[in-house]
């Protein structure tokens, strides 16, 4: 847990681990996503409150546009996977994979606590995972979503200057 300069220790938000399906014939895919966002103020250029998801009609009557901080990075991609599961269930279709989800709320601050959780759950929750999908991206334009197809890794540093 992070400690503030005054010594106060803040609890970390919980990481959500979820799973659906245990068919041994299906591969197990773990989907990662985060639900935290960078700070934003309406004065930054938002037409609506950045922390109130606002639905506005699109050009075509059946298209709706969602405006809000984190709608495409990264709540949209997290919700897309949940909607995919919901669709399979609504259509009474067999799931093609076993789903596992890791949804966390500290990515924008370096995913504090996530590494420890991954180590603790390595031999249990993650023991049967065949593939991992890092669903952390945004739309590059109004017509082009990003497709993350590889990661080189990250190096994070903390420097305190007195």
TrEMBL record:
Gene Ontology cellular-component annotations: cytosol
Pfam families in the cross-refs: Peptidase_M20
GO MF annotations, alphabetized: dipeptidase activity; metal ion binding
Cited SUPFAM superfamilies: Zn-dependent exopeptidases (SSF53187)
Origin superkingdom: Eukaryota
Gene Ontology process terms (BP): proteolysis
Entry keyword annotation includes DNA repair: no
This protein's UniProt keywords: Hydrolase, Metal-binding, Protease
PANTHER family, sorted: BETA-ALA-HIS DIPEPTIDASE (PTHR43270)
Protein name listed in UniProt: CNDP1 dipeptidase
